[in-house]
């Protein structure tokens, strides 16, 4: 027992030494493969590539470690596996009509010492069925909430569902249900409160799944809304004057189209001879007693709405022509002529004022100059006359003599 135990130990040690000596060589080779995602029913390509192969054998094993290909020979009796390419550096195998059971970790093996392995994970994608869009109500009233659901049946992996209303993304609430073996059905529930602007707008459910592209379903919202009412004055174009006729039209738009349009006068009786035909109101020979608020009310099964027209009957148009526009024009013309004249006057006045001002200034300056000259002369006579030879020297001495030295410097520079 002890001997055989020791024997097996020494054998494994022996192999370890052998492996270690080949390790350097094995590192020089580089086995590469890659993971594969394939849609169910389609073909997967599995590749085993070797850089710097020294004639070592390449082998491909399935997830149960059965040999699919040994070099270019296929021991496995599954004709869905086919050799695409074989060389010293590459073993390229295709697997057609992929099913969920083909999923798993495939092994590329290189018969070096020790053998090298690389793993290729095959992931089988199952696209979802056509999206199913259902709405709780066919027609919704404005301001009401509605609910739309979108279902992506049986996909692997689970689909993601996105919503768009018009061109605006919306957030739904998703529930994911696992059917069996990583197959999922996803349902997204979108709740939205509709306005009348949503009528006719498409709500789109977009399925996001790696096995499908542009997979979506859409539905147009149908929104009912209460009427929008607007009164339009057909006649007259200008002021409503006594004795003239008045014609109003009531425009009402709603969904469904308002079944009833009524005219009434607010807090008052309708003029007895007013005529209503359909949505039109016609009053002949206006009278000041007709003053007041006229209302058009339209309703459908969603609600009721109205618009008001306030009638204010003006006095009869008198024959005296009040040509307000012509007077305004005349006034503007006179202003247009008068403006340059005013400018001329202003310019002349300004020049005269400047000239007068300049002359005044000149007079003042001259006056001050003479007065000062006289003054200095007298002071010089008083202070500088003692040590001066003559009157002129006395003046010069007086100007420079009793000023301080700073002023002198300035003078000489
Ligand atoms: C293959 O996918 C597995 C995870 O499934 C990852 O760990 C591995 O790094 C991937 N291999 C390659 C070559 O991308
Ligand atoms: C097969 O291998 C050759 C040489 O290695 C290469 O030129 C060719 O493109 C390969 N074919 C495919 C389908 O990969
Ligand atoms: C593909 O595989 C399925 C079973 O997984 C089989 O029913 C079907 O007939 C196969 N199709 C082809 C074209 O071989
Ligand atoms: C306006 O109506 C009053 C009675 O409501 C009537 O006396 C008057 O003559 C009318 N005026 C005109 C201009 O028709
Ligand atoms: C939807 O609007 C209608 C009015 O058109 C109202 O009678 C009904 O109660 C509303 N439904 C909900 C669920 O708010
Ligand atoms: C109607 O409006 C006119 C102004 O054009 C006013 O003089 C008159 O008193 C108003 N009549 C009534 C009944 O309000």
Automatic annotation (TrEMBL):
Domain Ig-like: residue ranges: 29-123, 128-222, 227-300
Subcellular location: Cell membrane; Synapse
An annotated Gene Ontology molecular function: signaling receptor binding
Signal peptide: 1-28
Topology in membrane: Single-pass type I membrane protein
Keywords: Cell membrane, Disulfide bond, Glycoprotein, Immunoglobulin domain, Membrane, Phosphoprotein, Repeat, Signal, Synapse, Transmembrane, Transmembrane helix
UniProt protein name: Cell adhesion molecule 1
Source organism (scientific name): Sinocyclocheilus grahami
Gene symbol of the encoding locus: LOC107582575
